[in-house]
Each structure stands twice: as C-alpha cells, then as structure tokens.
Amino acid sequence: MTVDSPAISSKWDDDPRAQVARAVAIARELCTCDYPYHVSWPLLRAAGIFGTHRPREDEVLSSLLLPFIADSTRILIAGSADAATLCTIGRMAGDRKPDFTVLDRCPAPLKLIEEFAAERRIDCRTLRADLTSYAEESRWDIVLTHYTFQFIPSEERSNVLERLSRSLVPGGTLICVDKDVPRISAADATDAADTWYQKSWRKLRAEGFESALPASLCDELLRQAAGGRVRRRMSMASIAQLIEGVRGAGLALIEERRVGSAYPGDPAADSCVILVASRPR
Fold it and tell me: Which of 45, 190, 229, 246 lies in the 20 to 30 Å Cα band around 147?
C-alpha cells in the first residue's frame, strides 16, 4: 500500500492496529532493550493502553512548536517507540517541509520508522544513538523529546540535557514533553504493577489482541511492562527538576505549559508539561 492508495487519506495517518503484526515481528528480531519493550509496545498502543495522543496535548504542542518550523528546519525527534511522534509533528507542520531525523538507542523502532517513511514517501532519516553519550554539536534547529526523560536514569538527566543543548544551533529550540504525574511509592509498587497488569490483560482481550503472541510470552511481556512502568513512575523527574536541568544545561526557558487535570490525591492522574527552551545565540 502506498500513499497514493485511497485507503490512506494522508501520509501522516498513523494506524497502530494496522502496524501491530509488522511492528511485533521487527521488535522480536531487533529489540535490544533491557526487556523486549518494543515487542509489547505495539500491542499496548493499539489497545489504547499506552501511547495515545491526546487532542488537548496536540493542540498546545502545535501552538508552541509551529512558530519555529519552516521549510528545511532541522528537527531531531530524540527517542521514539514508533512513527507516532513523527506523524504528529508532520501533521502539525502542514505545508511546511522540515527535515526530520528520529533518534533512538534501539534498532527496532528505527527499522519500523524507516519502513513507514519509505511506504509513505516521507523524507525522514534515522539515527541510532544513546542520548547519554550523544556527541553531535550545533546540528539541529529543534530537538523534541516526547516522554523521553522517563526512560533516562535520574543520574543521567543533566548529562542528556547538556548534550541536547550542545546539539542545537545557537538560537535553536528544545521542546520537552514529559509526564506531570505523582510518583509511585515503594510501598505501593507491587500493587500498582499488579493492577496495571490485570487491567492491561483485560484491555488486550477486549480489543482482540490476546492471540497476537503465544499466551505465555504475552503474559511475561505484560509483567515486564508493568514492572517497567512502575519503576519509571517511582523515579519520575519532577517538573522543577526538569526545569533546573534545562537551565543548568545553559538553555533559556521561554515557555512552560501544563496540559491535563490537576492530580492532588489522584494517583491515576495522567497530565503532562511542555517546556520550551532556547540555546542562546
């Protein structure tokens, strides 16, 4: 199927259900994560458990991002599990034609994105690199991190922000989208993981994905995903810590926008913050 097919209304349309089989196959062959994150990710996203883009978030992100995009603007998407973020920013860009590059440390999502871009005739490069050792300087007009920092160890966040700052051209822009949610305590970790695991199994069955993988493998992956989610929520950076890291990296914070409901007393809350910062000229 190509972009000329009437089944594709836009080259930026991203249908996670249609991509499940191929995404899982690629990840089973290529994923190099600590646990096979990219094998379970396509199922979790297609079932609506992870990775759902919220209209209000997109609306705010678009208002903040678009003033910086023009033809040939060099955009680095720093960390991406699939083509979703690329498609979201592509739709926002409209008739503008920026130059996209997607970076990730795992080859599985990069292979998926390469195939997607080739099929849709999207000009997008991929770059396999670990942000904790990424060393390019003065290359990008925009760097976008979309929920990337939850995957960065707390002791490496300042290092990564400094490296991303150096990768921007003078006057370039860092846009950081990250969760603004309460941490999970060590005391609640086991119950939180089990609750999420049970809920996810029910959702996979309801959406018809329970047979996408052998039952024993699917069960193992869900348990690993539940544990990974809880560990990330236990070490989640606060907004104040992210802002401190941005400023410590020599960037000037120019916008801070929160999206979603307030969460006092609500451990299930799921809101985000969008930070916009620039590298001084």
Answer: 190
